[in-house]
Amino acid sequence: MLKIEGLSAGYGETNIITDLNLEIPPGQIAALMGNNGVGKSTLLKTIMGILPAKTGIISFEGENITKAPSDVRAKGGLGYVPQGRDIFPFLTVKENLLIGLEARAVKRAVKKADLPDDIFQLFPALKDLLHRRGGDLSGGQQQQLAIARILITGPRLLILDEPTEGIQPSVCFQIENAIRFIKEQKSISVLLVEQYVDFALRLSDLFYVMEKGSLTYARVADDQSRAEVKNKLKM
């Protein structure tokens, strides 16, 4: 699915990521954890082509995408929900979701029926908010909208940067169930960057821990690795 080999990236002359290797098999959830400022968001931006790779190779479904533009990566199946969500605050929920349809080149009349029912099965609260502006939603509702908008594009790999940040516990639970359902029913892989360690440990098949721009821990999920990650992150 996604394979990263010897990746270095950063800003200007400064490397934030150095010689990083990471792999996500098809249909699995990988958690990328670590303290603030270690390079997690930089890695995601490099995977998406927002930042260029200085060295190394990024492969997606067997194809080298290291130098591919961001839009090509998105059209090829990479779906990215950044930290901060990046919804359109002055557009309604419905309009935000329809942008996801347009990104998938599905262009029809603007009707409620255009929106896939499975999105509302995952996030039922959105169905009653279709005509509310994105900027008027709570943080949890905005996060659900951001994830739903990306899912409508039909990604093969869903990349989530801090999906529980600033979200109340009840909505975190809904997002957790949605991510689990996405993996089990839709065969979508997930790369999850998360500070809420217990959330990440419950969901993930693979654990990666990052420190100072490099991975210092990589293990398949089991009881021992969960304990090791908690100890390593002092949670």
Structural class: alpha/beta
Strands of the biggest beta sheet: in what spatial order? Answer: 6-7-8-3-9-10
**CATH homolog superfamily:** P-loop containing nucleotide triphosphate hydrolases
Query: How many runs of DSSP E, i.e. beta strands?
Result: 10
Alpha plus pi helix count: 8
CATH topology: Rossmann fold
Strand content: 25-35%
* Rg: 17 Å
CATH architecture: 3-Layer(aba) Sandwich
Low-confidence stretches are 106-113
Global outline: globular
State the helical fraction.
25-40%
Give the termini distance in whole angstroms: 30 Å
* H/E element sequence: EEEHEEHEHHHEHEHEEH
Give the number of domains.
1
Classified by CATH, the class is Alpha Beta
Protein name: Urea ABC transporter ATP-binding subunit UrtE
Keywords: Amino-acid transport, ATP-binding, Nucleotide-binding, Transport
Organism: Candidatus Haliotispira prima
InterPro entries: AAA+_ATPase (IPR003593), ABC_transporter-like_ATP-bd (IPR003439), ABC_transptr_urea_ATP-bd_UrtE (IPR017780), BCAA_Transport_ATP-bd_LivF (IPR052156), P-loop_NTPase (IPR027417)
